[in-house]
Amino acid sequence: MASIYSLQRTQFIPARLEEVWNYFSSPGNLEHITPSYMRFRVTSPPYTGQVYPGQIITYRVSPVLGIPLVWMTEIMHVSYLNYFVDEQRVGPYRIWHHEHRFQEVPGGVKMTDTVYYQLPFGWLGKLAHGLFVKKQLQTLFNYRYAVIEKVFG
């Protein structure tokens, strides 16, 4: 059986909870917090309302060798100002489950991202994870951390 991996990042954001929630629950902001070399673009129609269960968001992304991929996620769970969960429906992973949690703390918000993921292709997926996927995801979340520091810092 293929391995299921996880990645977790926590960040303190010196802002009001509503402001942080609104920023992260807007699909259009994903482009801003993704490195430009990945050529990430939201392809869903623009949407400015609140995130909701059943919401489908589509993207184009080129994570490896500039090869474009279609990625579709569905918002599975939402608890306003607390958390939302997206899961991949179409894309490069066999499983992608991403929890976004927000907790009001003195002086701001503690945000925790937890991703559980599994790669396709059995042992080839394990090899790819060791060679570049794990590092690429860590780099992506490090980039997001730095951008968020600038946006809310």
Overview of the molecule:
This protein is of the alpha+beta class and 153 residues long. The chain has 2 helices and 7 strands. A hairpin with a 3-residue loop joins β4 (67-79) and β5 (83-90). The mean pLDDT is 93.
Strand order of the largest sheet: 1-7-6-5-4-3-2
Low-confidence stretches: none
- Strand and helix order: EHEEEEEEH
Q: Choose one word for the global shape.
A: globular
The amount of beta strand, in percent, is 35-45%
Mean pLDDT over all positions: 93
Oligomeric assembly: single chain
Total number of beta strands: 7
Cα-based radius of gyration, to the nearest Å:
15 Å
Biggest sheet, in brief? 7 strands, antiparallel
Number of DSSP helical runs: 2
**End-to-end gap:** 43 Å
Structural class: alpha+beta
Helix share of residues? 25-40%
